Amino acid sequence: MAVPIDTYMEANVLPNYEAKCMVLSVVVIVTAVFWVVIFPYVASRLLMEPEEVDTSKKKDTPSTDTATTSSTPSTKAKPSNGMKRRGKSNKKSTTDANKKTTQKDPSQAKDETPPPEPPSVPLPILAVASLGCMVSLFYEVMTMSPYNTFVARGVFQVPILTALECEQLINISMAAAKINQDMALQEQQRAEIAGESLNRSMESLLWEPKGWQKLRHGNYPTTDLNVITDPFQKKDLDWLQEKLDARLAPTLSRIYGLPESAIRANDMFVVRYDADFRAKLENHTDDSDISINVLLTDDFEGGGTRFWKLNHEGMQTTKGTRMIFVGFLGVDRIDPFAKDDNRKPKLNLWASWLSLPWVSTKFKEAYSSMIHRKEHGGVKYGNNKYVEALFLDLANVFQIVGDFFAVHHVKNLVAPENADRFINNLDEAYRERQQKEVDDTAKATWFAGQQVDLDLDGTITAEWSTRRASKNRFMEL
Prior knowledge:
Blueprint: H1 17-57, H2 81-85, H3 87-103, H4 106-111, H5 123-144, E1 154-157, H6 163-194, H7 200-204, E2 224-226, H8 234-256, E3 263-274, E4 281-284, E5 290-295, E6 300-302, E7 305-308, E8 311-314, E9 317-331, H9 356-376, H10 385-405, E10 409-412, H11 419-435, E11 452-454, E12 460-463, H12 465-469, H13 471-476
Helix pairs in contact: 1-5, 8-11, 9-10
């Protein structure tokens, strides 16, 4: 029976994402209550107490009314008959007048003061509370969330393939390159007969090393083969997918605190660096949320990857051939291929919009999408140049802030003596899962979701030209 994935990892290295996010949620709520409720109330009371003391010292002295009475004695006049007849009526009128006078006594009206209004919070206190709340919440999210600290600038080393499996993947790639070479030779012969010239992409397949793509990744080209758009066999892809499902998916899920279903490969390829040809790759950043790099060969000199936080470069191979298996992975909050009624969030708030690395990548994708719409048509966000500049600036600012708060670190998660046990345990756990009813929507997507550009809202902006040209290959997956 398989044991938890952490069993063969270095102790206390990976965070408990669920527990840390729960604690952070409580801290955020308490902080918000303090700045929104407690601080304004206490500060207002302290500010108003001196005024109340001054007011209490200024009490009005009571005033007395003196009534003057007439010294002239009153004489009673004998009422006439007419007065007698109206006596009862006059008495009643007098009584009604007295009642009205009693009800509208002006002296009582002066004593009845309206209830005091609740004290208002002064504007300076509101300003301090608002600023304090925003700064505190930002600092807590940046320093306490593992999505902004531990994984943001981390490089993690784990075993994924055995030596024999690496050799098998190399042989699979060489076979695909041979098919490319034969196809290019046939196309060259056809073009010569027809008096035509080969297109540059087909022509590059006949350059050394023959059969390998040379023009992909325009700004930073590599000598490589994509596992879908180049002729990898279906049985070989099935073998590779099984290894990725069994080992890479649960490993990434544990390291980055993500559901496997949120992981989608956007480009997967085998790269070679030859000392006699293209031997290195310049300093750059990848257009991905997560990048994987699996070393396949060791019979070379030089080479390796040098990191400067997000930036990295492929060091020059001085002898032999260095081959690696590379994957550019997206972390999707929603499935870009799902229909509208099935577009449910896969990520929690901490792993998406409150994760600075994730947000930075999404704004960079949004900027690229706006450039694509500008060149190929289409309207979204008004195609406003200010929005376009804002997206690019936000992506850069978020990256700079992330570099400030997140510490760059490299961790070897599995000791060399535990590598085989780690891989075997992952394989055993995969077999146990396969015996149960498995929901395919809960799995990572390695092949079918490749080579698309996404917008800020997670929808597809465009498909790569190689995907459009190999539509049937993607439909089969």
